[in-house]
Structures are given as C-alpha cells and as structure tokens.
Amino acid sequence: MLLQATGLGRRFGGVVALEDYRLALGEGERFALIGPNGAGKTTAFNCLSGVLRPSSGRIRFLGRDVTGWPAHRMARLGLARTFQHARPFAELSVLENVMAGLHARAGAGLAATLLGLPAFRRAERRIREEALAILELVGLADEAGRRAGDLPYGRQRLVEVARALATAPRLLLLDEPAAGMNPAETDQLQRMLDRLHRRTGVTLMIVEHDMRLVMNLCSRIQVLDRGRIIAEGPPEAVQNDPEVIRAYLGQRRRHAAVG
Amino acid sequence: MRGAAAHLLLALALAALVALVQRALSPYAVTLLSLVLMQVALAVSLQVTNGLTGLFSLGHPAFMTVGAYVSAILTYPVRRKGFMMPDLPPVLAESEWALVPAVLVAALAAALLALVVGLSVLRLKGHYLAVATLGLIIVVRTLVNNLDGYTRGGLGLSGVPRLTDPWTVYAFVVLVWYLCWRIKHSSYGRAMMAMRENELAARSTGVDVLALQLFAFVFGAAVAGAAGALTVHLVSVVTPGAYGIPLAFTLVVMVVIGGQGSLTGAALAAVLVALASEALRPLEESLELYGLSQALVAVALLLMLRFRPQGLFGSREPGLLVGGSNLGGSSSACPSPARTTPRAVSAGTAPSTPDAPRS
C-alpha cells in the first residue's frame, strides 16, 4: 500500500469540509476524486499533501505515519501536487521553475555553493539536465527560456506538473489539471499523463471535472459530496450509482455528465 | 566563463578606482568612496534578505549598531577602557583585539541576534517582520543608550581605533558581492525566489521556507554587523542613533529602485542614492533645508513605483556579468532578453505594467 488515509476530517470553524475520509492507494494506480463543487475534494488534497493539517484521522505514506507533516516534508518524501489555480513562479523562466523543484533533492550544500566547489557545479549541471529532461517529457522544451508568467494559462498548468515531477514523486496529486485547457490541450495532457505513467510508474490521483479525462485516464474513482464519500469503484459502476447521479443532478449542477 | 571574466574585470576596475582616488584626491573623497562602497555592500546583502526571498526586513541598522559597538569595544585601547567603559568584565577590559577577529565577532553577534529575532518572528505571516525589525532598531538604540557602563550611552564612543582603510572596505565589498552572487545563482537562490513568487507552491515542491527565510535573514544581519564594525573603524565614532530608521528606509529604497532581486541593480542604486545625498548636502546646509536629500530619495522612489515598478533591472542581472556560463543556475539572465525589452519599453510609455510588485 502506497498511501492510506483513515477517518480523515477537517473543519473550518463550524463548517465540516471533510468527514471520515478514507483512501487506500496502491503503487502505480490511477485514481480520480470527483464530486460537485464544494464537495471537499481540494480539502482532501490539502490534507493529504500537508498543506492543511487534518482535524482528525491518520495518514500513512510509504509505510510511515505522516499525519500532520508539513508540505515540504511530504514533497521530500515523495508526494507532489499541483494546485487548482496555477501557481507558477511567475518571474522565473520555465526551466528555472522546474529547477527550483529539484532544489530539495539535488541542490548542493551551502558550503559547496558559497565556495563554488566542484560538487556545486556537478549538482547544478545535474539539476539543469534533469529539468530539461522533464520539460521534454511534458512537452515544454521549446519554452524553457520563457518567463513562466508570460505563458498561456494552459501551459502554466503544465509548468506546474513539470515542477511537481522535478521532486521525483511516488505519488502525484493533480488538482483539476485540465481546468483552463481547451479540448486539444486536454487531449495532449491525457497523452502526456499516460506516457508519464508508463515511463515512471508514478501513482496518479486527480481531481477533475472533465469526465472524459477521468474516464479515459483512471481505473478507480471516488465520489465526494458535502465532505463525505458517497461512492467508490471502477468508472462504470460509479457512473451508474444512483447516489452519485442524485448528488450531481439533485443540486442542478451543470456537470451532470457523469450519467 | 565569460561571466567570471567580466566579474574579474569589474573588480580590477574598482581597485583601480580606489587606487586613483587615494592617490589623486582629498581625504574627504577617500572617505566618501569608502562610505559609498559600504552602502553598496549593505544594499546588496539586503537584496538577498529581502529581494530574493520576498521578506521585508528593516533590521540592517540595528545589526550595524550591534556590530559597530561590539567591534569598537573589542578593539578599544586598553589604557582608556577603564575610563570609557567602567563596567566591562576584566577579560574584555584587559584585551585589545585586532581588526579581523573583532569584525568576525561583530558579525557573529549580529547574526545571533537575527537568529533569535527570526526564530520568533518569521513564523508569522505578512509584514510582522517589518514591524518587528523596526522595533528592533529602537530596542537596540535604547539598550545602547542605557548600557552606559559599556557604551558610554548617549555620548557615543569616540576615539575608536581607525583600523579600516579603503582597501579593507574594497575587500569587504568584493567578498559580499561574491557571496551574494553565489547564493543567487545557485539552487538556494532559485528556491528563495520560488518562495518569493509563491510560498505555498514552493513548500509543495519541497522548499523548507522557514529555514531559507531564516538563512537569508541571518546572512543579511551578519553582513550588516560586519559593515557596522568596519565603518566604526573608518570614522572612529559611533553613537546610539548613528544607524536608524532613515537608513533602513534608504536601504529598502535602494533595493526597490535596483529591482527586487537584482544585485547589480541594488549596487547601482546604492551608488546613485549615496552620491546624490552627498551632493545635496551643501545645498541642504546653505538653504537650511535639512532632510532635503531624503525627501528627494522619497520622490525618486515614488516615481520609480509609478513608472517602473519592477525597478531598474527587475530580478535580473546584466547579461555581461552572467555570461555564457554553464554553471546552470543563471537565474537572472536566463535567455530572455526578449522579455525585458518590451517590458522596459511599455513601462516607459504605458505605466500600467501588469506585473504587480510584491511587497
């Protein structure tokens, strides 16, 4: 088991954003978390990735109890994520965005850096090479030198994926990766994620409203509504689950595409 | 390697300037040059503390004061120590330190103070650091004022041995520049700028934000402490209020005018501001308009924020200094001069540059 969460809960004042959330992810899985807006999907992501401290429950990742770990330690252990709204390091180039993601894993020590020792040069060379390889993989190689803030939104989302990959994750959480992308870009994204999964075997967990992407990409789906899990299983089963249909249709949500 | 050559050339040119001024010009010009160089070192180090990380520290004057007094006390002639500093413990009262160890201890003292302040304040978000460091300036001044058995209180310490000459200052500036350049153009520099751009995203890529902020803050304090120490051995006097809030303001202005994160920009802005203030001094005196130079600096800042909010250089360095170096990082001049140009142009004509300045 790669990641296991039990009884996870998070409240904001009196509002219960997430309750009794559980998750069991195996190595190499492709998993989707869906649900109407405000269902608690991003809260679940935030708790799993250490951005938010859960109010209750436990998380185990790679065999360790990581409950309450801060985000940077989770990232170093092997859990990377992207955000619902793009958060590129706008003033840095695309390449530097990815290189920054390699700091924790491959950066030289402070003494070597200040003295410009060979270890520093080696580390910098390795960081640059790995970053370029990642840009190649996600299809951003041509834009390596551009300022990240100048890219179109859809490309910025890819920069985030590349930056997350730079931490060499075992588990990659993608929060609405296709948001702000046109259909062609979404197709590209799907092919890229497929390729990535094939090549690195990284476990993928996505929150996504684009059901085509979810159905094509993932083999298991979990549905959240008002902070609770209402269904879990393979895509076909979830699609026909009456509870799921009610959650989407009952609230007159537009993305009733599940049905 | 072109970048390294350009740096070497720059260092040599600066050395030539120091030699020339020393040989050909008045002692006044020599002191002025030393003080300007000192401002450069201060501004460049603040660029690491504030510009790269997005922190907003005003603490440099406090750390300079600490450094100046520590070094002054350590190096003071033993025969006058009993009279000037009656409360000194015997160990200190009977020893007279050399310049280098005294400056190192001064830097260390400032760094320790920064560590204590940073550990307690950096956990808070927003501009708490600005408020806390502003307070620190006042706390340090009050302490120095009241510890008169060590510092002679409000009278200040005079007759501090003049152990610094322009060459010491020169070496100091070169060292500070070297260290800051190394930091910026390394994995650390990228991580710092990453957290400046977006703290949450930086955390999520494994950057230990608190540790890096603490490092940047302590590093800047150490440089400021050393600068305070070297200055006191240059001018031989220090008073509790010598380095105060106006200086904190001026240094921050240098960082903003230079461009947040640009070492070259900060250095250039430091030279401009320091020389302009000095040039205006006679005017201030003849018109009896004291503070005129500060008012003009403030106006310059406002104009800058209005018409070129990213500063002279944005976050970048001139391509010449970065060179075709294959060191990897080259954070600043990553191959997009194409980007700076249109921005520079549009900032001149249409002031509504969208990239809102942080801070």
Describe this structure in words.
The complex is a heterodimer of chains A (259) and B (359). Chain A is an alpha/beta fold and 259 residues long. Chain A has two domains: 3-83 and 166-258, 3-Layer(aba) Sandwich (Rossmann fold), CATH 3.40.50.300; 89-150, no CATH class. Chain A has eleven helices and ten strands. Chain A has helices spanning 41-48, 71-77, 94-101, 103-106, 110-115, 118-138, 153-165, 183-200, 211-217, 235-239, 242-249, and strands at 3-12, 15-25, 30-34, 56-61, 64-65, 79-81, 171-175, 203-207, 220-225, 228-233. In chain A, the strands form two sheets. In chain A, strands 6-7-8-3-9-10 form a six-stranded mixed sheet, with helices on both faces. In chain A, strands 2-1-4-5 form a four-stranded antiparallel sheet, covered by helices on one side. Chain A is globular and about 60 Å long. Chain B has a single domain (2-349), classed as ABC transporter involved in vitamin B12 uptake, BtuC (Orthogonal Bundle). In chain B, helix 2 (27-52) packs across helix 14 (263-287). Chain B is globular, with a radius of gyration of 21 Å. The two termini of chain B are 34 Å apart. The chains are: A alpha/beta (259), B mainly alpha (359). The A-B interface holds A 49, 51, 70-72, 75-76, 80-81, 83, 87-93, 95-97, 99-108, 110, 113-114, 116, 120-121, 123-125, 127-128, 145-147, 149-150, 160, 163-164, 166-167 and B 179, 182-183, 186-188, 190-191, 193-194, 196-198, 200-209, 215, 261, 314-315, 326-329, 331, 334-336, 339, 355.
